[in-house]
Design goal:
With 130 residues, this protein is mainly α. It contains 5 helices and 2 strands; from the N terminus they run H-H-H-E-E-H-H. The radius of gyration is 17 Å and the shape is globular. It starts with 13 loop residues before the first helix and ends with a helix.
Length: 130
């Protein structure tokens, strides 16, 4: 089961962070069809957030067709977002870990690494859509 985390410094609304984490877990194969999301009560207790925030995230995921509520039982994943073979993830993850190690040795802190990654990622997307 997925365990949610919130970053108050990210500038991203808490409900969107929950949505992004569910999508990411689905893309990585950590959540698959039939898996149950944590109950609203459990998420509220773990993150100390308003239940309406969790409900909003779950409703949005339901609207996207990614999850479905079962009254009295919970919210369940209805499909997969895994596009490619998960076998490709291992080598890519290893390369990324190596890159992160080199970035830290170069003196970059976590925020600088994240800024570099995000800006490079966005530039890459822009270049491929031209």
């Amino acid at each position: 089961m997925i365990e949610f985390h919130l970053d108050s410094r990210s500038g991203v609304a808490p409900y969107m962070q929950l949505i992004q984490q569910v999508r990411q877990a689905m893309r990585l194969g950590l959540l698959g069809e039939g898996d149950q999301l944590p109950t609203v009560k459990d998420v509220v207790a773990h993150l100390a957030i308003n239940p309406n925030t969790v409900l909003k995230a779950y409703r949005e995921l339901e609207h996207e067709g990614l999850v479905a509520p079962r009254p009295g039982v919970g919210t369940f994943v209805t499909r997969s977002l895994t596009d490619q073979s998960l076998a490709a993830h291992g080598p890519l993850r290893d390369e990324l870990k190596s890159w992160l190690g080199r970035a830290r040795k170069a003196g970059l802190d976590d925020e600088s690494i994240q800024a570099l990654f995000v800006s490079t990622f966005r530039t890459s997307i822009e270049e491929t859509t031209r």
